[in-house]
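## retry 2 of 3
previous attempt timed out at serialization; input unchanged, resubmitting
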Amino acid sequence: MHTKTMEGLIGARTNMEMLNTPFRVFKEARLKGDTAMMERAMGYMGDFHEDAYEYKEEADEGMKKDIEETRKIAEEQREEMIKNRREEREEQQKKLEEERKENKGDQAVDTVEISEEGKVLLKENTPETKTDIEGTDVDTESAPKPKMDLEPVFYSSAGEVKQTEDAGAKVSASV
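## retry succeeded, writing output
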């Protein structure tokens, strides 16, 4: 809270409480019919009333300054948060770029290892190949022809092979 606000609120409250004394004197003077005392009491009440409004204006000015300071602080915090987010984003982008540079060779080339059984199946099912996987020549005329009459094979969630019972059955797969 701004000091002007505190001073204004305290001063206004004090002067409003001090109004009670001349007002009480005014009431007593009115009962007695003493007009001179009533006029003096009214003068004091007017002075305290004016002072209370002056303090009220001071409190209003202080509250305006409080609002301005609060807005400035909020704007500074907002700018700081934006700055921090930008820095974090830049750091993340740098890390991603570094990871890409480090893994560039790994990501650009994938390697596949084929087992001996797979090599044999590939030789059996590949029509008219001139070289095999290891780069040696293969006799294309004596190579076995691929088997086209294989039934579809499905795998269970446990990884076991299951033959289909109905050739026209619908199958749904989710990955």
